[in-house]
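Predict structure. Chain length: 264.
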Amino acid sequence: MNNRQKQVGFSQRIRLEWLQQTANLVLAGNDKEAVNASLQELLQDKVSVGGHAMRGNKEKAITILMKIWLNVPRGLGALCSNGLELLKKLPRKDQIAVHWGMAMAVYPFWAAVAANTGRLLRLQGTAAAAHVQRRVREQYGERETVSRAARRVIRSFVDWGVLSETSGKGIYGQGLTCSINDPRLISWLIEASLHARFNGSAAIKDLLDSTSLFPFRLAHVSAEYLVSASPRLDILRHGLDDDSVILQDERDMDSPKKKEGNNG
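Prediction complete.
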């Protein structure tokens, strides 16, 4: 994997409707200049109001939006294209999962905050922002920039409706949950999740039940189906009912394990 997993990057509170608008602009065939101009207008009275810094919060937010749906990092072009195609076909209620998946793939920091949030929700029913921040700092370093970015990601979760505020300050409960039954979307989300992981592979059961996907309930599908749905995924066989899914370009295509996976 590359250095994206070590970087924070996601430093702004990003609303779901901004990502939807960005994707719509790309789907309409707009170039980078036109998308940037439209986002400048969209965010004019929403971010950095009254600010004059060359790289204010509005510019940083636009950078995030465009990196997710237009200026995607190397190796994510096919995932992005497939995601845009899904947005055209899926009902509106399922589209949040596509934006979530691209945010994870482009910014693994988003996935890290989500995983820690989802783990706390699963264990105790609530998640304290301070606890999430502490665990994320353990991964990304004891820096104020890490804590600040984690806070903004958590606030994004609230904006998206997947976390709900409680009576306790900084304590959040589970917000909306979405059942995902479309096999195409499940396969795409698994691929997006793998891009957010250091080694690009994980056991199928861990992927389907991952706390980084805490707003979603994925129907359980076989590793064979996932691989058949995406040419960029492959199976690693460890034994009966112990399959792992891996990104094909993350290892030597001629390795013995590759051949074993194809013949299993």
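Summary: DSSP finds twelve helices and eight strands in the chain.
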